[in-house]
Every structure is written in structure tokens, then in C-alpha cells.
Amino acid sequence: MSPPDFSPAADRNKQPILEVLSQVLPECGSALEIASGTGQHAAWFAAGLPQWDWQPTDAQPHALTSIAANASQQGLENIRAPLLLDVMAPRWLPDDARFDLIYCANMLHIAPWATCASLMRGSARHLAPGGRLITYGPYLEDDVLTSPGNLTFDQSLRAQNPGWGIRGRGDVEKEGGRVGLRLMARHAMPANNLLLVWSFAHPP
Fold first, then answer.
1. Which site from 82, 106, 134, 138 is most exposed, i.e. has the minimal number of CB atoms within 10 Å?
2. CA distances from 34 to 100, 129, 139, 177, 204 (A)
3. Helix and strand numbers, DSSP H then E, in the chain
4. What is the C-alpha separation between 141 and 168, in angstroms, rounded?
5. Per-residue pLDDT of the chain (204 residues; tens, 9 = 90+)
6. Would you say 91 and 6 are in contact if contact means Cβ atoms under 8 Å apart?
């Protein structure tokens, strides 16, 4: 098996994210990760949350090799074989597939805005009762001064692709609200990122 890809950013933020996950999640459950990328998060979280069953996915076929390699290196038994999953697809998984956690990091700002609505709709379909959607990354907030670093990052993203860019937290909340998901907690993270916890205010 070829060696996994490596993301310096994922390596830096994996432990701070795990610390918050350990605080906000129950002791055991099942997780669906959207846009797993290199698989570094999946392997780190599966190791750090041994009572959780972790299902990594990505829309890019080449990413599945890296995800599998990261899992294999750790010898983890609670991480499933990665699946090809396009968040924009009308059907992600069988209708009866339910997860206690759907986790998505660093996707919304490097994907078309339409992926936000698709993420919310898919999460609403596949979250188990009492389950949570957790998103991580940079956000623009009306009541918080945007850091110079995030402003520069946003400009660079839009220069690469006009459909990319740091999303407004309020806009993301509106998309969640369309399917009944509400922002339940906001955690400030290193490097001007946020970890947002979403759930149904009134389970469907």
C-alpha cells in the first residue's frame, strides 16, 4: 500500500478538535465523516475515541487510498473502509443509514456554496435521533471582527475560484434552519477557526 498523503493543517488541528469532540460527544456512537481528505482526522479521532465507529468518505477517488493507508498504519478496528461520497449527490447512502455524528471539516470554503445546503439536507436524512452535525473551519461572523489572516485567506480562495470563499456563519445557520438543524454550540479554535455543533431543536 502506498504511503498516505499528508496535510500540515490537519496535523496541527487534529488534537484541538479531538479535545472538543471528547467534551461534546457521548462515550460511544457511530460517525460519518464527509470530505475526509487525507484521512488524518479519521485515523486520529478513531484512535482517540475508541468506542466510536468511524466511517470516512470523500468525493475524490484518489483520497480513498490515503484514507485507507492512514487507517492501516494505526491498526484501527473501529474505522471502516472509506466510501466514495459526493455531498451533492441526492442520495448519499441507503435510507436507513443513521449516525450519531456527521463530521465535516474544511469543506465549505473550498467548494461551491450549494454544498452547504446539500450537507444540511444529507445530515438531516442520516442523523440518528439526538445526533449531531459538527462542522469545522473558518467562518465570517457579523458580531466578530474578522482576522487579517482570514480576510487574506478569503481573498486568495476567491481568486482561485469565484465559487469558493469563507462562508458567513449566519448564512450557514439559515441553510441548517431549512431542514430543522439549529446551531447549538460555537467553539473558538486555533488559527481563527470555529467548531460548530448542530442538532435538531425538536427531533423529527
1. 106
2. 14, 19, 18, 20, 22
3. 6, 9
4. 6
5. 677 889 999 999 999 999 999 999 999 999 999 999 999 999 999 999 999 999 999 999 999 999 999 989 888 999 999 999 999 999 999 999 999 999 999 999 999 999 999 999 999 999 999 999 999 999 999 989 999 999 999 999 999 999 999 999 999 999 999 999 999 999 999 999 999 999 997 655
6. no
